[in-house]
Amino acid sequence: MEADVWKIQVDGPRRRVYIKFTNEDRVKEVLQDSHGQLEYMHDNGEISQVCIELAGMGIKEIRIAGLPPEVKEHKLKECLATHGVIKSIRDKL
Length: 93
Description:
Blueprint: E1 5-11, E2 16-21, H1 24-34, E3 37-41, E4 47-51, H2 73-80
Antiparallel strand pairs: 1-2, 3-4
């Protein structure tokens, strides 16, 4: 359903399409229903098998350089929370 799709990114050179859903449950449902395979019909009528898999999921580590020391951890968590769940913050010297 279109309402379940938040963003689509096409990577032409690699022949990949990334779809970001608004709901993780919908991602699981699509994977389960398709068994990781769908058919794509080209303009000329040719049919290609397309593989569907998770991409970009899991824990990510980010580094922020040049952050002033007076920035408190709770403020950093608050700012980053819009991008996902913050598991931990640590100083790296």
